[in-house]
Amino acid sequence: MATDRKAEVTWRGDLMSGTGRIDSVTSGAVGGLDVSWPARSEEPGGMTSPEELIAAAHATCFSMALSNVLAQDGHAPEQLKTSATVTFQPGEGITKIALDVEGRVPGMDKEAFERAAEDAKENCPVSKALASVPEISLTARLEG
Amino acid sequence: MARGNGTISAATGAFEDLPYSLAARIERPDGKTSPEELLAAAHAACFAMSLAGELSKAGSVPEHLDVRATVTLDEVEGGSHRIVASELLARARVEKMDQESLERLAEVASEGCTLSALIEASARVTVNATLEGGTDGD
User: What ipTM does the predicted assembly reach?
Assistant: First the structure.
């Protein structure tokens, strides 16, 4: 079954001095988030940006994929702490995404965890959608 | 994974501890966000900025742009899921602009939005733009 997820944004003014707002999304989980070009390309000043939302999308997608790979191996994780850092170069676009995960996975060794993380990085839907980003890196380690 | 759940926070502090889960992602959202929803928010914001830039360059600073992005996740052969489409819809309140020029600029804006270019490599990106109230005011 296909699922649709929608987001609505209002923008006022030109690019450099105007502002936008993510008004609502399908789930209602997010709303009233302001965005602007200076916040996106310079200091965020507490504002989100397309790249930060992509980072959130990728981190959540990767975490779900990894938990699934681990569970299929018989090692459902107790906890995965994932960060995704998206690098935006104005005029060029997104040049890099760095994924980092720390897992608490009972009975799993380091190599197997790294292999599972690599699998999740290759196959999660957001990774597939963003496959043309020049560099997607991954570091994976077990807690403790 | 089917029973697990998570939370996601932003480094800027713009959002914190948003819940997400697989069930919310592929069934009903029940107040939880998902990777595709966050991508839709990113795409709408990216395209809105790009369109504001193109309109301004054409000498018509937009008073107001309403942008929607809808990202579709679908099951593909083998049972895995793929992002298959992102649909952009814009309604523009802008002076000195006709429908045809707006549509052309919306295409250019999508090409110039970094996320459209990335998604287009593996999924369908569609753009629709309409003028609010027409050129003779409302």
Answer: 0.95
